[in-house]
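**Fold in tokens:**
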Amino acid sequence: MVRTLIVDVMGCIQPTQRASRGKTVILAVKTVKTSVSFVNSKVYNAGVPAKFMKVALITGGVRGIGLGISKSLLAEGYDLALCGSRSVDQVGESLAELRELHDDRRIGYYQCDVANRHARLRLVEAIQSDFKRLNLLVNNAGVAAKVRDDLLNMTEENYDWLMKINLQGPFFLTQDVACWMVEQKLMSPSFFGCIVNISSISATTVSVSRGEYCLSKAAVSMATQLWAVRLAEYGIPVYEIRPGLIRSDMTAPVTGKYDKLIAAGLVPQNRWGEPVDVGRAVAMLARGELVYSTGQVIMVDGGMTIPKL
């Protein structure tokens, strides 16, 4: 089915006529009188009844750690709503890889700037329309500091840019999703919802050359506890996963530096972490294996942050 969304100047969505084209669903968006970021998606293998679905929204779910999480959740039987800043065409290779792993699952990709309020709202509305439910939110999308530089030289422009993506966007996306999850829980007491924030060991480990990144991850850690307390009465647990050195495009520029440090004993398990290591941790939480541990931190760092003499 093809749904065209017309976005007015206030960011409201008006659905228009749908049409069919095989198994692939392409959702197009037309903006009217506005330069606000928009949602653009593809949904594959549509047609599974909503009552049989477990659906996960993973921000940044088509590269690096996010792709590892996507693979693990597919193996758990989840349908995926993935969002990222790149266009559908730019992420085609990752989507094809996911479809090959589990061609019986629904996989939707939505181009969305999570730092933009109107784009977040339209993202959630599109997922409501396409998937009808949402069981799991994984706030994974994030950016590194634009410039690694001394704390004394940090600019407000770079600070604001990073904070909007790493903190403000995920916090208010959680707010939107949490409201929806509470509605689902009230309508169906058997509903299980869960929220997972992907932070970093930088939440507690100082790097003076990228102070804004450390601050954003420390704040995500507090946001996890805030939402855990607020949603506890509805049985919706909220967790933080704190990765260490994970091999990804974000860490690629410093691979040589950390190869040497790992070889010198920085990480007790003596290797880089892989995206699948984080994915396995998310899968465990998505299965509901730690429902009485809301607000807790899961370390995925190979023992790197264990205090040592």
